[in-house]
Amino acid sequence: MSAKRKDRKGRVLKTGESQRKDLIYQYRYTDFRGRRQTIYAATLQELRQKENEIQKQADDGLDYEAGQITVIELLEKYISLKQGVRCNTKVGYQFVLNLVRKEDFGYRKINTIKVSDAKLWFMKLQKDGRGYSTITSVRGVIKPAFQMACDEDAIRKNPFVFKLTDAVVNDSVPRVALTDEQLATWMDYIRNDRTYSKYYDEFVVLLETGMRVSEFCGLTKKDLDFKNRRIRVDHQLVRERGGKYYVEDTKTICGCRFLPMTDNVYQSLKKMLERRPKAKKEVVVDGYSDFIMLDKNGNPKVALHIENEMRWAMKKYKKLHPDSPLPHITPHVFRHTFCTNYANDGMDIKDLQYLMGHSDAGVTLNVYTHANYAHAAEQVAKISEFRRKGAAAS
Fold first, then answer.
1. Is residue 277 predicted with pLDDT exceeding 70?
2. Alpha helices in 295-372 (DSSP H)
């Protein structure tokens, strides 16, 4: 019978355990895939704690080695499996991955993270100045990544399954539609400004159609039916950070639609085409060409162009009119205002859903419309008057 292996202190070592010359303890075992694995520890007590965890996870059907990857490695694996997603989604994935790479949390092993750790990390992100919407975006990627780890038996429980507001404060600014007065002030300023008046017609089209800005940028000459006064919307134009252009389907299946040209939209589109620079060679993106808006280099405009136009114009407005502040104005504020105004004016919700390109009327009602006291009071007055007349007539 062979003598039992001992460490330098004379303690008997179990099968698979050994102590190296540098006094580090190691344990070798075979995982459930039949591969040889080795773990290390500075003390025998620590080594055996790890052995117990391996055995416990094996008994539970968990893959110990898979749980040893870092949060960053898990996200990289999860994102690599997301093929065929939209360009904007890819950009969102990359944003989250870059953020996590800058955090100590990203280098932790996934099987060490508890719900409290996840909450504390979100609290740290908010304390560091990250907005609620950013944290929501991070959670939107990291939660399903950890769920994948659960489904693959790498960890027991997804530590990100909790209500986000239990950890961080929702400090996001709610969408606010522009009032008629604010809208008139802004559009009059744009129309009369020597620098930004050239963008006036673009703003009119966005404001009076409710289009997503990426849909607007994707419009080509073929999409404009001036005879029947309607606009065909069945795609959107996006550009990656590297400069590559893509034409994608609309955000939802219901995004494919026709939009009526109001008189203002009709006139603005005509003016935009008249002023459109003549390109030496029309850019073709995924089979689409003759985009109605071009930048100074002859390339199609993308959302960032329109957003910057509004941002620069707003910056100048604030300097010129410090005593007449306006809300922060973006292309999406125009879309929100369009939806809210038509909802307040009594448009049938299904018709408004069609114009907005929403797959669910609930989105139209709950996200984009914005009730206010003035409109509510006006409706109460109208209903009261109607009832009064009805009672008098009877």
1. yes
2. 303-320, 331-344, 349-356, 361-363
